Each structure stands twice: as structure tokens, then as C-alpha cells.
Amino acid sequence: QLQLQESGPGLVKPSETLSLTCSVSGGSIGRSTYYWGWIRQSPGKGLEWIGDVYYSGNTYYNPSLNSRATISVDTSKNQFSLRLRSVTAADTAVYHCARHRYQLVPFIDFWGQGILVTVSS
Amino acid sequence: DIQMTQSPSSLSASVGDRVTITCRASQGISNYLNWYQQKPGRAPRLLIYTASSLQGGVPSRFSGSGHGTDFTLTISSLQPEDFAIYYCQQSYSTPSITFGQGTRLEIK
Q: Which residues of chain A have a CB within 8 Å of the CB of B91?
């Protein structure tokens, strides 16, 4: 059974960079037909798609983040990561990593449990 | 962006009740509509994809329907484990997906 687990700091200061990693077990990111991505959840904005990465490094991002997000992949470690620059209190949320199917029948079929990240000084 | 609007925002029901949740898209999305269930402290779980296809392992009391802009999720006979928050999600504009705001299903 595929499992995804987020890790990273739970507290980030305003204007700094949020960095999270998702470790995948029970399946391989490499040579997969799926994209791997990040979705955040906050009381104010609900569920918001942040972006996705393919094992080749190809990426897509939500334009509403104004190019602040970068998602990268490390197939040797079976991990992918999120960096979100210049954070503010509005970026406080539970961040989920997920597997995102694009082809034929698009859906998200596996999610990590999520990690709460608070932006505060 | 395609906006997704769910109704109601919250709903109280009893075990054994039949429940319907509605999701409306701001533009036509064909049948590119998925439903998820989320329990407190847990990740969302895919229930239904492409409006009416049941994900593996999901009980048959869950069903979905709709096409274009209007969609429904129906639970035919509520069970105690069904009390949760339900989200719709459009996949028409993949990768730029969007979610509804959620419907909280509570025990009456």
C-alpha cells in the first residue's frame, strides 16, 4: 500500500521560506505515470492545490502563489519537496503531499496525513 | 479558475437516513468531478471519480451523479462511520484543480 509522509518545521517566521519534504513508501516515484504534489488546507481558503512535479522534474504551479513555490523531486530517495518563499500568516495551513493522476481519469488517490505549518514570529 | 460551490455547508442526519450533497461548477466540466471524504486529523479519501465511478474499497451505499455543472453525492443509508466532511473537486482543468468548500455531515 502506497504511503506518503510529510516532514519539516511546524513553525516558520514571516518573510522566510517554508520547506517540506514528502517521503513515499510502498511504490516508486521514478518512472511513474503519476504526478506528485502539494495541497494545503486552511480554515480561510479550504483545500488549495499548490503544485505538482513529475519524476522527470516537470512542474506545474498554482498561479495564485505568484511564483513563490518550487517543487522538486529526488527519485534516488523516493522523495519530493516544497519550498514556499516569502511566507505570511496567510500561508498558515495543513500541508498535504499527494499522488495526482493526470491521464484519462484525473484524480488524487493517495494523500499524506498532513503537517501543520504556522507562520508566526 | 473554475469555482466549485457545495450545498449545504453542514447537514445533520441520523443513522439510516438517505443524504444528498450538491456541488455546482461555475462552468461546464463534463463529468470531471471527484468526491472525497475527510475525517478529523486524517487525509482526504477518494470516494468517487468522474462523477459516478466508485473508487475501489468504497461501500456501495455511496453514489454520485451529474454532468456539466450540477453534481450530487448520495449516501443511501448513513452509517456511523460516514459522519465526516465531504468535498467535491473538479479535474476538468487538471493540473489546476479546485475544490468545493466542504459539507460537514453531523449526527442528529
A: 106-107
